[in-house]
Design brief:
It contains 10 helices and 17 strands. The protein has about 375 residues and is of the alpha/beta class. The C terminus is likely disordered.
Length: about 375
């Protein structure tokens, strides 16, 4: 398989089965890493994911030049071939009134979360963040306005020949945001031959993607404007033709600890665009509606994330949760750390509950 992500890095081969069934809901970096740990510990693991391939955002949003898909897919294949993991794709697990999420395009089967809870001894939820946040501005419903997640996803499924229609190519693209999604969307647009403008409301020093990444795509040809925030999408006959921005200055720190952008009176300007991409964050997407959560004992926080205790356990004792669906959108590293922590605690909790010895080497740190 060559250079690939080794999700089962705790062992070289599958240990004796504990005859205990675990469902992992979500095959992104968090889900696959936890699966590797649990498979190494002797659990029989089934992984459910709504996409046609495992890997989550690593496979379906992060551009191939940043993470080659083969590295992820070969790692997932090792879980299946060497550790008897079953990965069930194109299957969306959900309970309650379902809302459309980004990346739902290729779902073929819907499975009730409550059925999963009744069929498995343990469940781990790692469903990530598949709903983008867009500020409520005039014109955001216009044709030609999208999100970074939707834009990158459409290009990825085209790349994998999973979609018959090529994503629309624009001449002038405006990307709004300063994180990795913004950088990836800007670079993706640049590769289509577009004139690309990246606009961020703080300065390059505060950009979550970091100065290095912003400077790198500037060298590639992306125009970067800092200290500007969108106030309106300019549209004509329902089609976006530009973005009106407000110049900003930085004030005292806000709740995130970063300087708060403050509008400069009269400092408005317009950037022409026929495609506007919002890279302004994503929200957690648990596999359950708020109205149904209490019935199955999975408590949700106000921001839609899943509540967990100190051992990553939900209010339903047999259900654990980890990754971005718990702590919000993050980078791959924190999601993996979170899931490995959850997997350790799942193992220790189950061993204690069933009165068995904890397997040496997999005690929670």
């Amino acid at each position: 398989m060559g250079d690939y992500m080794k999700f089962a890095f705790m062992c070289r081969e599958r240990r004796q089965s504990l005859n205990t069934r675990v469902a992992v809901i979500g095959a992104g970096p968090a889900g696959l890493s936890a699966t590797g740990f649990l498979a190494c510990s002797g659990y029989d693991v089934d992984v459910y994911d709504k996409q046609p391939l495992p890997g989550g955002l690593m496979t379906f949003a992060i551009p191939s030049w940043r993470i080659p898909p083969s590295r992820v897919l070969d790692g997932a294949r090792e879980l299946e071939e060497k550790f008897n993991v079953k990965i069930i794709t194109r299957s969306k697990v959900y309970a309650g009134e379902e809302t459309h999420e980004e990346g739902d395009d290729l779902v073929e089967k819907r499975i009730n979360l409550e059925d999963i809870l009744s069929q498995y001894d343990l469940v781990l939820i790692t469903t990530g963040t598949w709903i983008s946040k867009i500020p409520k501005l005039p014109g955001t419903g216009s044709q030609g306005v999208t999100t970074a997640l939707e834009y990158l996803y459409k290009w990825k499924i085209h790349e994998y020949k999973l979609a018959p229609v090529k994503p629309p190519i624009a001449k002038r693209v405006v990307v709004i945001g300063g994180g990795y999604s913004a950088v990836d969307a800007a670079e993706r647009a640049l590769k289509t031959g577009a004139e690309v403008h990246l606009v961020y409301r703080r300065t390059i020093r505060e950009a979550p993607a970091g100065i290095y990444e912003i400077e790198r795509i500037k060298r590639e040809g992306v125009a970067f404007t800092e200290l500007a925030s969108p106030v309106e999408i300019i549209e004509k006959n329902g089609v976006a033709i530009g973005v009106k921005f407000q110049k900003m200055t930085l004030g005292p720190p806000d709740e995130t600890g970063r300087p708060r952008p403050i509008p400069i009176p009269g400092g408005e300007f317009i950037v022409d665009a026929d495609l506007v991409v919002f890279a302004t964050g994503e929200s957690p997407t648990p596999p359950i509606s708020p109205s149904r959560a209490e019935a199955v004992g999975i408590k949700l926080n106000k921001d839609g994330s899943i509540w967990v205790n100190d051992i990553m356990q939900t209010s339903n004792p047999k259900v654990f949760a980890a990754g971005d669906v718990v702590h919000g959108a993050s980078r791959i590293g924190p999601a993996i750390r979170s899931s490995l922590k959850a997997a350790r605690y799942m193992h220790n909790w189950f061993m204690a509950k069933t009165g068995r010895m904890v397997t040496p080497g997999v005690i929670a740190q």
